[in-house]
Design brief:
The complex is a heterodimer of chains A (307) and B (236). Chain A is mainly alpha-helical. Helices cover 72% and strands 3% of the residues of chain A. The longest helix of chain A is centred in the first third of the chain and has 31 residues. The termini of chain A are far apart. In chain B, helix 3 packs parallel to helix 6. Classes of the chains: A mainly alpha (307), B alpha/beta (236).
């Protein structure tokens, strides 16, 4: 029981990181119908920046906000300079462009920060570990029903739920949220109501990258390091989470992320032959099962239209 | 000064030009109907006025040249469009559709009052205010599209084939509303229609569009008196 509870908490907390990447994917997909392959790598660039801010002595929470700012600018610029002009010519080409951006950003990170784990004394890092947003020393935990729950896990979960709540309020109770939903629903009609769709799309990409940055920093904190491969797996899990949730539903992204985190942790914990190697496979199997029964995902809107 | 004055408008899609020097005028408080066959360029004209596609020539609103303005700027100047095929936001509730229509206005400027007003005019929308627009019937969606356009408090309403796919009774009801808005509130209207008989009843003036050019114009009475036009467009 105690181990089960611990695996559940760890799974949900792990899944909340996937949820952050999934949220970014969903925001962009809703606005433009594009799958942003570079979502994880944009987050990684911000994560490296947070490491760099840490080297300069910036406290971690301020570094996070700055990193989100970097992500926001990176996302906005990507939309304006790459995605917009190319999607006018061919929507399919955008897919290739984000794929290219994925490679480019990874190369850029390597060119600036090298291909080793950071921080490391080899390059004279001042920080011992990648900064964590929450206490993570061995004694930072509490016991409940015999399970050992680390504060870091609880903090991450609370952070992701907080972000999700803020996004929910933004989408449903602000004028900008209304504009985002209108653009996602019918871009041309949105123009006809006076919504500046180009600004909405630019901000959507910025917002998606800023949220992804939180995911990257949380991952860096959990691992204690950042390296060029940090976001590869997370991006795949994040895409899976978005698919499971329905790809156009922010709630679906969060729930989808947590389900995948749970399945992954429970399967590798309880089924011997799954272990670390096959846990992604099990998570994907669950998704295939769900999509067979409900093709639009758990929370996705099936296209219903009366004419 | 006229509400809308178009001179030598050419517009199209990419290398394909659909309008070849179109002239058209809507006076203040007029309801002008544009008739024409499929492919004549009616929708292209509407899209050009709203700034959705590239265009050359001059488009003036109340004497101000708005040819180069962006779509949101044009809406703010007071031109609202009900696009062909309704163009509602299917995933949004009826209320959110109307709120989006008031996007260019400031909150609290009587937006809620206006919404209730259009719910009075279209009671069926009021019953479905929390429903998603995509679940409404065709006629209800068309009402919603018109109400949404009116939420921006336009001076000029562009209406692109509102009767498309609707039952005759519903079409009649919509045209009654448009006619009343025009006569009672002085709303200027440019209406594109294939349903010529109905439209000409409420029209101040009529334009005939053929392959990107205006080929005839006049009052409803003048155009129905012309035999060839009557045969081609009115079918009697």
């Amino acid at each position: 029981m105690d181990l089960f509870l611990q695996r559940v908490i760890d799974g949900i907390s792990q899944g909340s990181v996937y949820a952050l990447i999934a949220l970014g994917l969903v925001i962009i997909y809703r606005g433009t119908g594009h799958l942003n392959f570079a979502q994880g790598e944009m987050a990684l660039f911000s994560t490296y920046c947070v490491y760099q801010f840490g080297e300069w002595g910036v406290p971690v929470w301020i570094a996070l906000v700055l990193g989100m700012g970097v992500g926001f600018v990176l996302g906005s610029i990507t939309e304006v300079t790459l995605v917009r002009p190319i999607s006018k010519k061919s929507p399919f080409a955008v897919f290739i462009v984000t794929l290219g951006l994925f490679r480019f950003l990874n190369w850029l990170d390597g060119a600036i920060w090298g291909n080793q784990q950071l921080p490391t004394t080899a390059v004279g890092s001042k920080q011992g570990r990648f900064p964590s947003l929450f206490p993570r020393e061995p004694e930072d935990h509490f016991k409940i029903l015999g399970a050992t729950i680390r504060w870091e896990r609880v903090g991450i979960l609370a952070l992701v739920l907080g972000i999700s709540l803020l996004l929910y309020l933004l989408f449903n109770f602000t004028k900008f949220g209304l504009a985002m939903r209108a653009v996602a629903s019918n871009a041309e009609s949105a123009k006809l109501t006076g919504i500046r769709t180009h600004i909405v799309l630019m901000v959507s990409w910025g917002l998606a990258a800023a949220i992804g940055a939180i995911g990257g920093v949380v991952m860096g904190g959990l691992n204690g390091t950042v390296n060029l491969g940090l976001m590869f797996g997370i991006f795949i899990y994040g895409s899976a989470a978005a698919t499971l949730g329905g790809f156009d539903s922010p709630v679906g992204a969060v729930v989808g992320g947590m389900i995948i985190g749970l399945v992954e942790n429970l399967a590798s914990g309880y089924i011997d032959w799954v272990g670390q190697e096959l846990k992604l496979g099990v998570a994907l199997l669950v998704i295939v099962g769900v999509l067979l029964v409900k093709p639009s995902g758990l929370f996705g809107t099936p296209k219903v239209e009366r004419v | 000064m006229s509400m809308l004055k178009i001179e030598g408008l050419t517009a199209g899609y990419g290398p394909v030009s659909v309008l070849h020097g179109l002239d058209l005028e809507v006076g203040e408080g007029e309801l002008v109907v544009m008739l024409g066959a499929n492919g004549a360029g009616k929708t292209t004209t509407m899209r050009a006025i709203s700034g959705l596609i590239g265009r050359q020539g001059t488009i003036e609103m109340e004497g101000v040249n708005i040819t180069k303005w962006s779509p949101d700027h044009i809406v703010r100047a007071g031109i609202a469009q009900v696009p062909q095929g309704r163009g509602t936001f299917p995933e949004l509730s009826v209320e959110d559709n109307l709120l989006a229509g008031a996007y260019v206005r400031h909150k609290g400027e009587g937006v809620r009052d206006d919404m209730e007003r259009w719910f009075d005019v279209f009671p069926r929308l009021a019953e479905r205010r929390a429903q998603k627009a995509g679940s409404l019937s065709g006629g209800e969606q068309q009402m919603l599209a018109i109400a949404r356009a009116l939420m921006s408090r336009p001076k000029l309403l562009l209406c692109d084939e509102p009767s498309l796919g609707l039952a005759p009774l519903i079409t009649q009801e919509l045209f009654d509303v448009l006619g009343r808005l025009n006569t009672e509130e002085g709303l200027s209207v440019l209406l594109v229609e294939q349903n010529a008989n109905l439209a000409m009843h409420i029209a101040s003036r009529v334009y005939l569009l053929e392959t990107g050019r205006i080929v005839a114009s006049g009052t409803s009475a003048e155009l129905s008196a012309d035999d060839s036009i009557r045969k081609a467009y009115l079918g009697f």
